[in-house]
What we know:
Helix content is 11%, strand content 39%. It is mainly beta. The mean pLDDT is 94.
Amino acid sequence: MTYDAEKSKEQPSLPPDQVLEGAIIRVEDGQVKDFVKNLSKWRDPDQKAINVVMQVVFEGKNYDFEQVFPYFLDEKGYLIHSERSNFGKFKKKYGSLPKAGVKIKGLTNEEGYLRLVFK
């Protein structure tokens, strides 16, 4: 199939202010620049990062969303994070660092876009 401007269906957006349960379906390892299109807000696009791909279900339909977690490793290969970092907030909320299968919650903003719940 190829693009055809005459054939389209508009998919309804998720309603605003919804908390939806889901799970991490995949964790991709790389650099920030591998996962982020607009790098203007990032100090170091070459920084190591994971892209956490999550999925929620609403009215029988799957909705995927992603979040990038930049990280640093110490000389022994241990991930270094503070309790106020995204890793620290995630661990406090969900009991582990991001990995496939971990149950999460997504919150829709006023435009229906999903964001990971940390609190």
